[in-house]
Amino acid sequence: MKTDLMEAQQPFTDGTSATLRTRSGACEIDVVLTAAAVSAVRDLVRACLRLWGLTELDSRVTLTASELMTNAFQHARKEDESSVPVKVVLTRTPDGVFLCVSDPHPRLPAPVSAGDNDEGGRGLVLIKEISDGYGCSSTAHGKDIWATILRSA
Q1: Do 136 and 75 meet the contact criterion of CB atoms below 8 Å apart?
Q2: Does pLDDT of 148 surpass 60?
Q3: E strand or H helix that includes residue 75
Q4: pTM across the whole model
Q5: Cα-based torsion angle of the residue sequence 136, 134, 150, 48 in order, rounded to the nearest 10 degrees
Q6: pLDDT tens for each residue of 126-136
Q7: Cα 84–90–91 angle (5° rounding)?
Q8: Which DSSP string corresponds to 83-132?
Q9: Strand 26-33 to strand 96-103: parallel, antiparallel, or no bridges (unpaired)?
């Protein structure tokens, strides 16, 4: 018996595509991520939240997903390439969701102190503030960066 409820190729406006797999309580998105594809993947994450009746988490989860994907795009892709392969996994938990973004670069992120005029460097600080927990780990194929976002009590 097939465990996936849906498996589909999602075309994006910039010509890339993503493979989306969903099953009860989980959504996996494999994408060759470009700068333009971040918003489309964020829309897929939003659709999963709607499907699960978790729209109250929408802003926190989609902002976290955007930050993690943007970090992967900026830091995990090779200098001469315009994309990076990533996997986004959103898992429903009893109290909220668990979000994980995997990329092929082995270097773990470290928070930096961004100055008032710096354009970047606030992503991990922001994720720390809006999530209920986050972390990262090395994998055989790069790294996983995750966040847990819970419903309000």
Answers
A1: no
A2: yes
A3: helix 58-76
A4: 0.85
A5: -40
A6: 898 999 999 99
A7: 150
A8: -EEEEEEEEEETTEEEEEEEES--PPP------TT-SSS-HHHHHHHHSS
A9: unpaired
